[in-house]
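This protein record is not my work; I was only asked to verify it. Where you disagree with what is written, explain briefly why. This is what I was given:
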Amino acid sequence: MIYNIFPTKDATIYDYSASMNTGRDPLLELEKITSSSVFTGTHKSRALLYFDWETAETKLNLAPGNYSSKASSNNASWDLKLYTAEATAIPYSYKLEVKTMLEHWEMGIGKRDHNPITEKGVSWKYRDNSGSIAHTTPGAKVESLTNTQTQSFEFESTDILINISESIAKWRSSSAANHGVCVSYTSSQEADALSYGSQKFFSMDTNTIYSPRIQVGWDDSSFSTGSLSAASSDEILVYIKNGKYEYQEEETVRFEVRARDTTPIQTYATTSAALETFYLPTGSYWSIEDAETEEKIIDFDSNYTKLSCTSSGNYFVFPMNSLTSERLYKIVIKTENRNWDGQIEKFDVNQLFKVVR
């Protein structure tokens, strides 16, 4: 299972406009720019995001524990994902870090282009709507270096994908409240004399499918074929049985995946050979794409998107509130080594569906 948790508040804070709030801006910005013809000194910013991971953990019935890396199939893995909208004058090599926050903050309703600026809500100096409660440490009080996750970039996509399982585990094992995370350049990069340009990421207020998220992954698969035979024909049809066009946000759906021969061998029998169901092998996975852009919303993952199987056929279970509502999606199935080592097949099961409020 891969489940998306979307933020309930986010904002960018800027050190050179210490009381400016950007809680309703459609973009989050990481910036580190040194002196120019326009200003002297250094301008830097950080992105703050809050995810209700405690409620998600309870709702998903994940056993509290020491969440480890993706290499373990027994524990949940938590990945923070941010999608780039624009990047300007960034270096060849740099590093970003994520730290858990230690103080409550209020999002506010400001935007970067407000003139005059909006001061109600979190900023570099303040963390409340009244503008009277300051961060204990300017720029937000965060956890120590012992609880920091990083991502290094070497001339590659600027999208952020950082495993924060360690932060979740340490938060879960302590009595500390969840106040979200802070994303920034590393402490040493913020302090040096170099410029790292500007990176803008889609925020929770974007009108696109690229909202920030935490993707929680764990292995919920089980495999028992009963009396079914393997789908060994060269030509098979893979489809979703009894799929619907619309699903409510709060539904948890069991998608029944079926495989049949497209050219069954004619035999004398009391039932049609064309109706016989076969099972796909254990190396079979599901993914969900945006139907319009074909962007992978949930990509194939050998640990977390395995197809399950019972004596009736293959299936997978998916909670609809893990997707952005009012958009069309489609399901794609992949199998590996079905008839010979190295074989990879992908099946568009022609199942379009919409998540509605």
The longest strand covers residues 344-356. Helices lie at 53-59, 165-173, 187-191. The chain has two domains: 2-217, 229-356.
